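Preliminary data (for renewal application), calcium ion complex.
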Amino acid sequence: MLEFAIRLGKKAGDYLQENLTSAVEVEFKGPRDLVTGIDRGSQALIVEEIERSFPDHAILAEEGLRKETGSSFTWIVDPLDGTVNYVHRIPFFCVSLALYKDGLPYIGVCYNPVSRELFHAQAGSGAYLNNGRITVSPNARLIDALVVTGFPYAHDTIDDILAKFGRVIRETRAVRRFGSAALDLCHVAKGSFDAFWEMGLKPWDMAAGVVVLLEAGGKVSSQDGSPFDLFSGDILASNARVHDELVGLM
Ligand code: IPD
Ligand code: CA
Ligand code: CA
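Predicted structure:
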C-alpha cells in the first residue's frame, strides 16, 4: 500500500506539473476559495486508481467524494493542496494522500512535483524525503524558531487569528505563510520549520502531513494542547520541543 501511494502521488503530481503552464480556468467555491479542472482531474485520476486496486477501501476526497464501505482502511485525499499558489504559478503545492487504518494515521505521502520532493511515512517506519530519513529540528528555544502558518478562506474569525499571529511573531525568529498546509507539515517534519499552526483546516489538508510529522519525531495537538482531532479544523504541529510554549501563546 505504501508503494502504491508513492506511485500514485507521483503520477498525480506529474499531472499537476504537466498542466501548470496551461491557462487554468478558475471556479469559485467562495470569494477566495478557488477550484480548477486540474483539482478535479487529479482527484479523478487518484480515485480511479484506488478503486481499481482497493475496491473495498473507504475514500474521503476534497472535491466532493465520501465513499463509506465499512473497511478499516480510509484514503484521505487532497488532489491539489495549494490551489491558490497553483493558479498563480507559485511552485509550492502538492498532492496529499493519506491512508488511515481504524481511524489512526497509517501512511502519508505528499509530493511537490516542481521541486520533486516526495515525503512519505508509514506508522512505525520513520519519515522520508525522497530516499533519505528526516527528523524534526532539535531547537528548543522559541526565539530561534521559524514558524509557518496559514489563513482560512472564510474571514469570520480573522481578528482572533491575526491576534494570535501577532503573539507568535513577537516571540519567535519569524513567521512564514507558504500556502500549502500539507507541505507546511512536511517542512516541520524535515526540520526546516520548528512549528506550524492553522485554524479552519479540513482533514485532507492535514491527514498525510500529520503521518509524516509524527514519524519524524514531531508532536501534534489542538492549539489549546488537547489531543489532535483530524476533523476539528485546528492544529498545532511542532518539533515537540517548542510545543508547550506555543500552546501558551495560542
Ligand atoms: C489550502 C492550503 C492553504 C491553507 C488553506 C487550505 P487548498 O488548501 O492548504 O495553505 O491555508 O487553509 O484550504 O484549498 O489549496 O487545497
Ligand atoms: Ca488543501
Ligand atoms: Ca485542495
